[in-house]
Amino acid sequence: MGKKMMTSNPGSELDLGWLNSVHINTAAVYRRAANLQSRKAVKGPYQAAWLLRAVTCIDLTTLGGDDTESNVKRLCAKAAQPVSNDMLNALGFETGSIQTAAVCVYPAKVPIAYATLKKMGMEKKINVASVATGFPSGQYPLETRIAEIKWAVEKGANEIDIVIDRSLVINKMWSELYQEIKKMKEACGSAHLKTILAVGELGSFENVYKASLVAMMAGSDFIKTSTGKEAVNATIPVGIVMCRAIKEYWTKTGYQVGFKPAGGIRTASDSLSWLIMLKEELGNDWLKNSMFRFGASGLLGDIERQLHHHITGRYSSANQFSMG
Ligand SMILES: O=C[C@H](O)COP(=O)(O)O
């Protein structure tokens, strides 16, 4: 599942009438989330297959102030071989057949990420995603936010994870939000645009739904929940709200926009809950990495432990699969 399968959303006119018609039944969202989360977990051989699917949907992320060249290189090596060949073979998969969807780094680390993947011959299989536009706060002039996108694309990023200016949502400045994201989409050129809403800072599900619509109207190829740096990051209820917006946008425009929950997704069991929610809300079309990603720095290790348990019947120590 390489880069070429990605689709692009051309966007549409800003439709304020549509935004004004939005009403969210908060109690119903929580009921739906509780109902989905009470479903029996996927078990047995299906579980291993779902977990491997989850691995192929990970944007393997390092977004630390202390990121170095060597930990970005290690991240790339892990993205190229996220599950050991022994485990893959035991599960009936070919050697080297699974990669994560992307590595996700700060702009300054794009050159080393791209060069490392290229050296490994993996630059066509693994996307280079760069956060941009003053991640994580977005509190920078538009000019420098746009320049950041262009710089990251020039250095090898083919996916750009922007943050929005949350104040535009809080103050319901939908037209300004639309114009900003549209400019960011233009700056991306052929790179895919993933728009981080930072849902934990938007105040209400209604704002999340409206911001999702505006982001899609402005041409976002994915909408993403969080930076991982807010106090509240990805939750299933907010995921349901965003998936409903994606579904409505698809129904009205015919364009399919991807979804990326990010922030605090740490366990194999979390990943299964998200995949179940996705399948129930958007259907099988979204169960692939051209339409769905996990933004996660610490999920892969737990999936590896779960796969190890599936194969051997034993749990490994917490630090056996420490990276990712
Ligand atoms: O976009 C990705 C997030 O920053 C990852 O958050 P996390 O470190 O909580 O997994």
Give a short account of the largest sheet. Answer: 8 strands, parallel
Helix/sheet category: alpha/beta
Cα-to-Cα separation, first versus last residue: 20 Å
The helix-strand sequence is: HHHEHHEHEHEHHEHEHEHEH
Lateral arrangement of strands in the main beta sheet: 7-6-5-4-3-2-1-8
DSSP strand tally: 8
Pick out the low-confidence regions: 1-5
Please count the helical segments: 13
Please specify the SSE layout and strand pairing:
Blueprint: H1 16-20, H2 26-37, H3 44-56, E1 58-61, H4 69-80, H5 85-90, E2 102-105, H6 110-119, E3 127-132, H7 142-154, E4 159-163, H8 166-170, H9 174-188, E5 192-196, H10 205-217, E6 222-224, H11 236-253, E7 258-260, H12 268-282, E8 294-296, H13 299-312
Parallel strand pairs: 1-2, 1-8, 2-3, 3-4, 4-5, 5-6, 6-7
Helix pairs in contact: 2-11, 3-12, 3-13, 4-6, 7-9, 9-10, 10-11, 11-12
Kindly describe this structure.
This is Deoxyribose-phosphate aldolase. Pathway: Carbohydrate degradation; 2-deoxy-D-ribose 1-phosphate degradation; D-glyceraldehyde 3-phosphate and acetaldehyde from 2-deoxy-alpha-D-ribose 1-phosphate: step 2/2. Its EC number is 4.1.2.4. By secondary structure, the protein is of the alpha/beta class. The chain has 13 helices and eight strands. It has an eight-stranded parallel sheet. Helix 10 links the parallel strand 5 and strand 6. Helix 7 packs parallel to helix 9 and helix 10 packs parallel to helix 11. The two termini are 20 Å apart. The N terminus is likely disordered.
